[in-house]
Amino acid sequence: MQTHEDFLNNEVQSILNEIGLRRTVMTEFITALLPIITRKMDHIIPELLNFPSMLSHYMHENLIFDSTLREQYLYIPFNQDKWDGSIQHVLKSPRVFKTWRDVEKDCTSHIQKSTYRSR
User: Which CA distances in Å does 87 have to 25, 64, 113?
Assistant: First the structure.
């Protein structure tokens, strides 16, 4: 998105303004990309379930991605009050949520044990 941000905001946004379309081009661009991203998620998540540490890393990166869209691009889909993030698409699967939760719990437990031993 950063690569195309100037072009979209300067060139395409002016076209939308000229034709009277009261929409933000970056919001529309992000909205158009999200279905592609969710299809990719649907494709890779089953494989990541076999590699819990990779799933954990993926979820962390997904949270960063969602935060970037919210904070840097102020993303909220047109005619909506909020956006739950792409992470919600992944977490709606009970198996994914449980696997991720268990990995994070195990990691936390391991860190706590290591900290306790070092005292």
Answer: 23, 10, 29
Mean pLDDT of 91-110: 87
In this structure, what token pair is assigned to residue 6?
């100037």
Determine the structural domain holding residue 83 and report its residue range: 2-117
Domain count, the chain: 1
Q: For 61-96, how does the pLDDT look when each residue is reduced to its tens digit (9 = 90+)?
A: 999 999 999 999 999 999 999 999 999 999 999 999
Global pTM exceeds 0.70: yes
